[in-house]
Amino acid sequence: QVQLVESGGGLVQPGGSLRLSCAASRNIFRFYVMGWYRQAPGNQRELVARITVGGSTNYADSVKGRFTISRDSAKNTVYLQMNSLKPEDTAVYYCNRDPPLDSWGQGTQVTVSS
Asked: 51, 80 in Cβ contact below 8 A?
């Protein structure tokens, strides 16, 4: 069964921080590269961060140095620490494998605005 549950979004001022969490079912998470994606209105969904089973990470240029992805294998959970948030980070954020499964969670809305 595919289960991805994102949480932790909200409204934050520019320069602020948020920490997103994604609880994944074990069959999705355990042996796979996991990623955080985002989709802003009118834009396609994009991969912003990914993490391998061994903990190696990659980031989109737009978030490099500001976002940190991590994973907790005991909890089947992926996190995204977002610092120095900008209005252009406003989007719905999703987690999934990389490359992604066809099924997605509901996402969590992040709004950066003063």
From this structure: no
